[in-house]
């Protein structure tokens, strides 16, 4: 499991150096990777640095994946680590959803990078989401409901179907209720370790935007619209390649153009559903606009910017600065607010920012 300040470790156990290198390159934007050429060298390495998931070739030396997995099961520190068998053969499943040798997944070589990432992310987050069972009922309901609807968004987009807004509101209702009871910190803490960055960021924005609305005296129904807007504001990022979305260094001009397209993709997706309230679409369309006109996608400035957009841009920037990423630890909220105040005066509405700053420091959100 990943911990705040660093990201999950994946182990690759395979005889072929070329394959190990390809997997490492495919995962490097999201995870740390340790490579092992055989199981004899893997075992001591795994004991020293237990990973979140192990990829093992079906016929890895000296005795294959099944023998290796059996040996893992005998060691308490390694027994519960999810394993995925990689093979040139089609999956030899039992037909009831289980995999051979007690493995947790199967990938047939060659496989798509997206398939690899989806398989690993699902297994990593299984452990994160299992910990939600220990949270208060409201926080647990908010996390479970929002991750389910968020995970379904890619299916809706692929099918060209509208996201059911009633389901989004239903998923966000426990979040708004938790804010009303000043019990929202469990939600923010519960999503810290989630490896789906887009989901974690969107839920943080949804929570903080709803909290902002609560602080300003908006009704629970209006807060629900804000929370829904936060959860959906980056839906179009599903179309952004992982290597651009998670690039550690500065984006090239071409990459930044690709990144900016997530706004128009989000708006296009939301506009499919006529039931989605206009404020939700405004949040999505304008959260990257800046007061001085230097934002995107339309370079709106000054009075062209809706108050909702001003609020959303503040929350989005704060969340981006304080998010844990593969290439950086989370920034303390106090430092982020200082940067936003001292260095972003031409970009952010300082009146709203002062209210947001007072709210955030009062809530002691880290």
What profile does the largest beta sheet have?
Answer: 5 strands, parallel
Distance between the termini: 20 Å
Quaternary organization: single chain
CA-atom Rg in angstroms: 22 Å
Q: Give the number of helices.
A: 15
Q: How many beta strands in the DSSP annotation?
A: 5
Structural class: alpha/beta
Low-confidence stretches: 1-5
Strand order of the largest sheet: 2-1-3-4-5
Shape: elongated
Strand residues, percent: 5-15%
User: Helix fraction?
Assistant: 40-55%
The whole-number mean of residue pLDDT values reads: 90
Reading the helices and strands in chain order gives: EHEHEHEEHHHHHHHHHHHH
Overview of the molecule:
It is a single chain. α5 packs across α7 (185-191). With 366 residues, the chain is α/β, with parallel strands linked by helices. The protein is 54% helix and 7% strand. β3, α3 and β4 form a beta-alpha-beta unit. A five-stranded parallel beta sheet has the order 2-1-3-4-5, with helices on both faces.
Key structural traits:
single chain; 366 residues; alpha/beta; 5-stranded parallel β-sheet; 15 helices; 5 strands; elongated; disordered N terminus
């Amino acid at each position: 499991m990943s911990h705040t300040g660093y990201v999950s470790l994946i182990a690759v156990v395979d005889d072929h150096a070329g394959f190990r290198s390809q997997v490492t390159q495919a995962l490097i934007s999201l995870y740390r990777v340790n490579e092992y050429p055989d199981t004899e060298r893997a075992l001591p390495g795994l004991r020293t640095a237990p990973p979140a998931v192990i990829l093992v070739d079906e016929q890895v030396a000296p005795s294959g994946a099944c023998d290796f997995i059996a040996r893992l099961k005998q060691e308490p520190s390694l027994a519960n680590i999810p394993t995925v068998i990689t093979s040139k053969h089609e999956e030899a499943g039992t037909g009831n959803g289980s995999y051979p040798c007690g493995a947790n997944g199967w990938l047939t070589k060659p496989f798509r990078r997206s398939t690899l990432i989806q398989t690993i992310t699902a297994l990593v987050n299984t452990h994160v989401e299992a910990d939600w069972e220990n949270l208060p009922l409201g926080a647990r309901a908010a996390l479970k409901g929002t991750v389910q609807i968020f995970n379904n968004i890619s299916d809706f987009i692929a099918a060209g179907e509208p996201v059911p807004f009633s389901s989004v509101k239903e998923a966000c209702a426990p979040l708004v209720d938790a804010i009303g009871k000043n019990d929202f910190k469990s939600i923010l803490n519960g999503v810290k370790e989630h490896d789906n960055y887009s989901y974690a960021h969107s839920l943080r924005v949804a929570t903080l935007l709803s909290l902002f609305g609560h602080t300003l005296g908006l009704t629970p129904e209006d807060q629900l619209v804000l929370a829904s807007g936060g959860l959906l504001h980056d839906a179009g990022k599903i179309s952004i390649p992982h290597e651009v979305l998670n690039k550690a260094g500065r984006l090239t001009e071409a990459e930044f153009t690709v990144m900016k397209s997530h706004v128009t993709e989000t708006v296009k997706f939301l506009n499919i559903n006529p039931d989605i309230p206009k404020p939700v679409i405004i949040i999505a369309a304008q959260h990257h606009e800046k007061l001085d006109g230097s934002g995107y996608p339309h370079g709106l400035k000054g009075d062209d910017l809706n108050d909702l957009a001003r609020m959303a841009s503040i929350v989005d920037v704060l969340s981006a600065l304080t998010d844990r990423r593969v290439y950086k630890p989370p920034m303390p909220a106090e430092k982020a607010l200082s940067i936003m105040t001292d260095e972003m005066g031409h970009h952010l509405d300082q009146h709203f920012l002062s209210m947001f700053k007072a709210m955030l420091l009062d809530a002691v959100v880290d």
